[in-house]
Every structure is written in structure tokens, then in C-alpha cells.
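Batch manifest, entry 17 of 40.
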Amino acid sequence: METSTQTLLFAAELIEDNGTYSLVVEDVSTGTVRSTPVPKAMVDRIPAFFAALTAKLGPVQPSRGW
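Output type: C-alpha cells
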């Protein structure tokens, strides 16, 4: 039986606070956290970005045993 080990490299959150958006990204290996403001127009385009990325790279295959 083949086993797979997954390692979280980065964790990201998109936070909305009273109509202002911020992208917060943590580099898990170093513990570094960075944040940057994100315009609403960019937030609105995130679903289209993911659709284009999936179309180009293909869907992520779920790992076995989950």
C-alpha cells in the first residue's frame, strides 16, 4: 500500500473588515506572516482566477486515505 505525506508550505486567508480586504499569507516553514491590502475588484475576480488555473493545470487529485 502506497502512502503519501503532505506538507503545508503556505497558508492564506482573505479577510474583510468593513469593506476593506486584506490578504494574509503565512510561510509555514519560517513562521513569517505577510499582509497586503487587496482591492475589491481583485477579490471579485478570484473565482475566475481559480477556474483559469484549474483549466490550465487540471484539478487537484484528492490524496488517498482522506
